[in-house]
Amino acid sequence: MAFKGCPLFQSSNMETVMNDGSSNISSPFTLAVCAEMVFKSLPVVDRLKRITELGFQAEIWDWTKHDIAALARSGAVFSSMTGYVTGTLADDDGAEELLRTAKLSIPVARELNCPRLNLHGTGLDGNGLPVVKADQVTSSMWLKACDTLKRIAELGEQEGVTFVLENLNQAVDHPGTPFAKAEDTLALVSSVNRPALKLNLDLYHAQIGEGNLIELCRRALPYIGEIQVADVPGRMEPGTGEINYKAIARALKDMGYRGTIGMEAWASGDDETALARFRDAFTV
After folding, report:
1. Per-run averaged pLDDT (10 residues), the chain, 284 residues
2. Quick check: is 13 in a domain?
3. Which residue in 9, 192, 197, 262 is deepest, having the highest Cβ count within 10 Å?
């Protein structure tokens, strides 16, 4: 069942009315905000309502931790959610578990009208550490991961959703995660080369692990399903660290990218100010 008529596929390059009654031309991209990381003093449903009031789409992590019916009633437009509960890409038992819980995630995505489901090389615990650690990724693990992702892509095509594979960093947040680098996720997704499997290209993680972000975006462009952002160091909103997100936004626009940019970042101070900085960075 496809998600027909979903607002996620509408252009965001239009005049919008701001809270003060003024109008401006919004970002050429669809902007989304991770509800797990901002307005932390509020219940998640109220966070979603505030994110929506400020003109953004919303993203969530582990759906098993939420009241899905309440989220669906919040009025938020959901951009992405975690698309599995447990499982891994590169071993037989883990792959079966990943497929099983990916199938469980699809009805939840349908209830939220959320067309993108996020994957990692392995499940992450409450501290962001890999459930199955891999100090070295072997050739047999690569082959198994490709096979698992082909099956995931077939599932996505049958159900009308897109699974996206996210790169992570090993140096700061997720040590020991297999297939963590953007080079790894790009190699896997491009080798499968199916429409229901794309990249969630996280530029915060890529800056820590690899750098050269604009060229990375250029090479990954045909396979990108979404781009996520936060600044380095600190994983806070754009404008608080070393990444020149204005330059990246201009380059993405020039490349022809018009998809979703998701802020998966902590607010450095006031949450609304953080979201305003995010919007400004990607209004070009």
Report:
1. 36 40 68 98 98 98 98 98 97 97 98 97 90 92 98 97 97 95 98 98 97 98 98 98 98 98 98 98 97
2. no
3. 262
The enclosing domain of 212 has a CATH number of: 3.20.20.150
Longest dimension (CA), the chain: 58
Number of domains in the chain: 1
Question: Could you give the CA distance from residue 250 to residue 232 in angstroms, rounded to a whole number?
Answer: 19
Are 247 and 254 contacting, i.e. CB atoms less than 8 angstroms apart? no
Domain residues for the domain of 64 are: 30-281
Chain-centre distance for alpha carbon 152: 17
Does the N-terminal peptide bond of residue 233 adopt cis geometry, omega within 30 degrees of 0?
yes
- Among 9, 30, 92, smallest CA distance to 262 is for 30
- 281, 244 contact by CB (below 8 A): no
Exposure b/e, 106-118, CB count within 10 A at least 16 = b:
bebbbebbbbbbb
Residues paired with 263 in a beta bridge: 33, 229
Query: Which residues 6+ apart lie within 8 Å of 179 measured at CB?
Result: 89, 90, 121, 137, 145, 165, 185, 188
| CB-neighbour burial class of residue 211 (10 A; exposed 0-12, middle 13-18, buried 19+) | exposed
- CA-CA-CA-CA torsion sign (155, 158, 161, 162): positive
